[in-house]
Amino acid sequence: FSAKSIGESKRGGRKPQSLLVAASHNLRDHQAEHGAHDNICLEQSHLNVILHDPSQSGAVDALARELKLKYAVPKRKLRKDHVQALEFVISVRRDSDVDEIAYFKASTRWLIEVFGEEMLLSAVVHYDEAEPYMHALVLPIMDGKYSGGAPIDMQNLPRLNRRFADEVGKLFGFSFEPRAKLSSAQRNEAFNLVIDHLGTTDDPVLSSRIWRGVLEHIKSAP
Fold this sequence. Notes:
By secondary structure, the protein is an alpha+beta fold. It contains 7 helices and 7 strands. The radius of gyration is 18 Å and the shape is globular.
């Protein structure tokens, strides 16, 4: 269970990504047009399962825009690099005995319970890579107000992780015990969380002359 923000921010050397691009990747629109890359096997993409519509990336982006209008999210007050969506990635090992689709459906219901069905923009299960996993895009509007990356900041994401483990993961027999050493993927995830937190709080270190050195330390020990 992991999460990241989707947006055009380049803070800390992050690669910017729009909601449309993220949805296009998850729904394989981009791959269908430009061919596979990374570890995607297009011959297996027909096995992917859409658990929550829309089924087209353009429709996902349009839905987000409609919801922003509905909840009067003021475009003029949003920064150019604002968080356009939250992306949750929920995976399962291919050699596990769990009913994968049941697990992903339960995960989808959990996201709806936490964020509201209206805010769940998309949920897609991928079977065209090494391990099955689900990408879910959520619009960050909580209690009728735009909340940016706050729901998955350094304080809230661990709480969400524990709640997901208790309410979903453990029901399927999964263990969510912390690892003694971070993997490369976990270190990158932690790095992104730190950068998001510094940006959300407008920490002065971002404009400090020592920022470059601090950034290197965050990369090595987030």
